[in-house]
Amino acid sequence: MLWYILRRLGGAVLVLFLISLFTYAIFFLLSPDPAYQICGKTCSPERIAQIHTTLGLDQPFWVQYRDFMVGIFGGRTFGTGANAVACDVPCLGFSFQTNQQVTEMVASRFPVSATLAVGAAVLWLLFGVVGGLIAALKEGRFWDRAVMVSALAGISVPNYFIALLLQYVIIVQLQWLPFPQQVDFGDDPLRWFQTYILPWSVLAFAYAAMYSRIVRTNVIDTLGQNFMRTARAKGLHPSTIISRHALRPALTPVVTLFGMDFAGLLGGALITETVFGLNGIGKLTADSITKNDQPVIMAVTLLAAVLVVVANIIVDLAYTGLDPRVRVKAS
Amino acid sequence: MSDQTSLKTVGIRLPGSRLLEVDDLTVTFPTSRGDADVVKDISFTVDPGQTIGIVGESGSGKSMTSLAIMGLLPRGGRTTGSVKLNGHELTARSDREMRRVRGERIGMVFQDPLSSLNPYYTVGLQIEETYRAHRGGSRRAARKVALDALQRVRIRDAETRIDHYPHQFSGGMRQRIMIAMAICLEPDLLIADEPTTALDVTVQAQILELLTELQDATGMGMVFITHDLAVVSEIAETVLVMRGGVQIEQGPAEDVFARTTQPYTRALLDAVPRLGDDVATMKEVRP
Amino acid sequence: MATALNEVTVESGSVGALFTDSAPTPGRRVWRELRTSPTALLSAAFIIFILLLAVFAPLVAQLTGWGPNEFDPDAINPDLGGLPVGPGGGIGSDHWFGVEPGNGRDIFTRIAYGARVSLTIAFAATLATTVLGVLAGMLAGFYGGWVDQVVSRVMDFLMAFPTLIFMIAILSALPADNRLVLLVIVLSVFGWTYTARIVRGQTMGLRTSEFVEAARASGGRGLGIILREILPNLRGTIIVLVTLSVPAYIGTEAGLSFLGVGVVPPTPSWGKMIAQAVPWYASDPMYFIFPGVFLFLTVLSFTVLGDRLGKILDAGDAA
Predict the structure, then answer these.
(1) From CA C129, how far away is CA C171, in angstroms rounded?
(2) Which chain C positions have a beta carbon within 8 Å of A271's beta carbon?
(3) Does C30 touch chain A (CB under 8 A)?
(4) In this model, does residue B4 exceed pLDDT 70?
(5) CA of B100 to nearest chain A CA: how many angstroms apart?
(6) Chain A contact for C162 (CB, 8 A cutoff)
(7) Which of the residues A52, B59, C142, C270 could staple to A57 if both were Cys, CB 3.0 to 4.6 A apart?
(8) Cβ neighbours of B245 in C, within 8 Å
(9) Chain A stretch 247-276, residues whose beta carbon is closer than 8 A to a beta carbon of chain B
């Protein structure tokens, strides 16, 4: 079992390494020269060269990549002498456009994305699982259709459209909620809740729609399994049959999916954050792309990939805990 | 609470009644072509310690008969006729009432033990839950019952293996576990729906032996469903041959096998290949 | 469960007669079942409508009397910051869906041209990913061994990427020409894995089936078997995958355009129209509602059709 974990971790490290290399290479090849962005159009060649040296852009690819990776674990310094800029561990780069360490930029925005992710996750798990369950149990009847139609709408409607629509209807027309405002929970819990409730709902709607379809299919499949017939033949109470025998087989695959989706969301919900004006990692990404702030884009991409890979491992391990058949293979 | 008392007494034989009496049992399903009787006017009886073998090909209605007795028909199925356990009528009962009967008064064993056991739970738990659903009681008491049941079906190292998962057992052992689950509450009747079909021939013999032993020890009646004539001849005193939902013939096993006058039964018997048979003489059974 | 179902199909009356009538060819049956489903018909009708809109966009422009990039200064009120004149964002006999604030471009025409972009990109990406995915999936599923290892590792690697962010990052870094082609390429590179996964799974299942064994026994070779035995049996799966890929790509392209890395203005795209409508969402909601509704209904139609096809084909296998 330990061997299995080590193997998985080893594989993950390899994947992360490859992703970081790949990402760095893509940006290395594709991005315009950052020197021009820092300096502007009216830049003298000496100034450009100077910037190149400061940023280490005159080095070959492998050196740059190595410096970047080393910087993550040990910090690095850009430039020398009086104009040297320090970048503390873990150094994900330095944004010369905004004059900030990228790590700090990302870290400061993480709480917003996390809040968004957690709130949405709670909502979508609740509605998705319960909805799918109800649809499966009432298969072919009214509630099944009702849930499935909603789910269909949820996966078909673009979330920025729903976001705008909700903002328009609820905030502007009905005025049930005030405009979203960035507040801390501690300062003004009501306003905090009012700010997040719409983005939570928008995100949750799309995911819940997807999940209810999946849960429904899984539960229906499970209900048709032979061991369900055995459970009934033993004279068990229907609620026991559902809760004990149907849910675990049906929901275990959903755990995998949830892990990946949640991790992805932690990396920032670009569209939702942009539309609602929430200052999370997603908005940071979107803004940086508009401004072409290279180090930030690079860092956020890497961070998102790391989250997904880590989530993958956690979910795999959780699976061995949840499904006894996999456990034996692992040990 | 009249239904409560009557349920308690389902275990008590009404004077003059048999263990199981099935009378003109008919099972109907709605299909796109109108109602279809998958079982039509089937009648038979079972006494304690006695086994009836229901024989037929797939589609003959034999499994449906057993499901009808248990009240476990798929959605849409209707039962008419009478099924009496110890003289108490079962067909008109609600699902809630039948739940008391299932597992406690009638045990059931199914064909494929791997898919019939929940892979996510230990075998111990799956046996214990039967006990706890019917008798209440603590986990410890339930565990004792489960252990006892496993030992009765001859699972070695039962104390350890009780915490193992279904996929950690061989096919034959899984079937023993299913039997353990079905008999742990000492039911009056055991319904076995093709319990040996998915098993090797050698393991088949062991399972049949086990069933006979258990029957001798507890005096329970058995309904044994199969398409395998060789198996039936070993375990059943009475044989009921079904085809297309209808009874072709019924009688003591010896009589049916040695002296049948029914062409269908004849064809079934002839279709069992024996060493030394001429290939050309082997006939096909038209379903 | 199998036994129970079998017994249900027994006919009463004729003793023991278990007959099945000759099944109509799958294509005809699918067509017949689709025809009887109102939701499928509605979806198909809407899809055809959008297709026509896209194909005949220039005709639409002639019909409305406005080109997609033609400004109409009379339709907007400069005193109100460029807000359209008239209700619902300038809806009237001149402009059936109103105009864009600020420049007065006819929305209906732009929706038609936007349909072109959405459908072209979605169809192209679907074609590419289906071909790639089916090929990769069949090869990996059929040959197993190192071929499977390689393909699966590549799929795992690609799937570990945060797709949206990566696509945005790449697209933002690339120059603006040949945008359509670039979009299709980027979408395909990250999209084929989903199809490949499913096809691989199905192929592995088919590999052990009897007719493949028979083909092998009669001397069939790898590629021949794949093409003659496995591919035809994947037909249903592929159809459903295609029908469900299209809306996924429509949505993704719209999202990318919304974020500003999709098609380049002035090419209209539904996603881009919504993005441009964001600042006007309170004063001229119809500006974002029109493209939004079209996006929604188009994706919905394809999804409903795909779902229904999937159900019909599933039921066919069980019969």
Answers:
(1) 18
(2) 255, 258-259
(3) no
(4) no
(5) 6
(6) yes
(7) A52
(8) 10, 12
(9) 248-249, 252
Q: Which of B103, B115, B134 sits opposite A233 (nearest CB)?
A: B103
CB contact under 8 A, B165 and A324: yes
Cα–Cα dist B99/A238, whole Å:
9
Distance CA C157, CA C193 (A): 10
Rounded CA-CA distance C18/C10 in Å is 6
- DSSP string covering C79-102, please? GGTSEESSHHHH-SSS-TT-B-TT
> Which residues does chain A have within 8 Å of residue C1's beta carbon, measured at their own beta carbons?
224-226, 229
Say yes or no for a CB contact (<8 Å) between C161 and A308: yes
Q: Is C319 on the interface with B (CB under 8 A)?
A: no
B40:C9 CB<8 A: no
C-beta separation of C68 from C110 below 8 A: yes
Consecutive H or E run containing A38 = helix A34-39
A330 has which bridge partners?
none
**Sign of dihedral through CA atoms C151, C152, C157, C158?**
positive
Chain-centre distance for alpha carbon A201: 16
Cβ-Cβ contacts under 8 Å, A328 against chain B: 165, 167-168
pLDDT in tens, C104-118: 888 888 899 999 989
Report the complex ipTM. Answer: 0.86
- Sign of the C-alpha dihedral computed for residues A272, A274, A279 and A282 taken in this order: positive
With contact defined as beta carbons under 8 Å apart, do B212 and B239 qualify? no
B252 close to B237: Cβ distance less than 8 angstroms:
yes
C8 interfacial to chain B (CB closer than 8 Å): yes
Q: Dig out the tokens for A292 from the structure.
A: 């072409």
Phi, psi of A140 (to 5 degrees): 85, -10
Q: Is the N-terminal amide bond of B195 cis, ω within 30° of 0?
A: no
Inter-chain touch A232–B72, beta carbons under 8 Å:
yes
Q: Pinpoint the alpha helices (H) of chain C.
A: 2-8, 26-35, 38-55, 57-64, 87-90, 107-143, 145-160, 163-173, 179-207, 210-217, 222-225, 231-233, 235-258, 270-277, 286-318
Residue C4 with chain B: CB contacts under 8 Å? 63-64, 67, 74
A225/B181 Cβ within 8 A: no
The reported pTM is: 0.83
d(CA A287, CA B273): 79
Chain C partners (3+ C-beta pairs within 8 A): A, B
β-bridge mates for residue B42, sequence order: B25
Rounded CA separation B166/B163 (Å): 10
pLDDT tens profile A79-90 = 666 666 777 777
Whether chain A has a CB inside 8 Å of the CB on C282: the answer is yes
